[in-house]
Amino acid sequence: MASKQIAAFLTMVAVVLPSLAMATEYIVGDASGWTILYDYQAWAEDKVFHVGDKLVFQYPVGVHNVFKVDGAAFANCTVPPPDQALTSGNDTITLGSPGNKWYICGVGQHCSQFGQKLAITVEGLSPEPAPAPISSPEKPRKWKF
User: Fold this and answer.
1) Whole-number Cα distances in Å, 8 to 16, 19, 21, 88, 98
2) Domain ranges for the chain
3) Phi, psi of 2 (to 5 degrees)
4) What's the whole-model pTM score?
5) What is the pLDDT of residues 7-38, one digit of tens each?
6) Which compartments does it reside in (predicted)?
7) What is the CATH number of domain 22-125?
8) Is 106 strand, coil or helix?
9) Terminal alpha carbon distance of the chain
10) CB 54 within 8 A of CB 21
11) How many CA atoms lie within 13 A of 83 on its CB side?
């Protein structure tokens, strides 16, 4: 029984670990970072986000913050309680599950008036690279003596 559990665990690790090792780290807004008057939807448009990837929100401490919100709070720029804010200026969020994800800045009117918000869709684990083709074994030679 225990050997089956160990085998299942090792199989899971063998599948998940390579995908996490291939995770991509995205600096939100690239060189502009997390700021006002930036089109984050255009930034995200050509990216494919996978479980295990990381979003890094870079901004001057005290000038911005990051809240993970639901779709309604995103649409209305509804700011959650202050204790839910990320405020380090270099906040890293690992995308842990597939689906829609929403982030806003809760400072002043940064979200509602200045568009400081990001919506993305996260897909499953990163696809593993295709294995190298296996060459077919040579036909056995028939030796004549």
Assistant:
1) 12, 17, 20, 39, 23
2) 22-125
3) -65, -35
4) 0.74
5) 444 344 344 444 445 799 999 999 999 999 99
6) Membrane
7) 2.60.40.420
8) coil
9) 54
10) no
11) 0
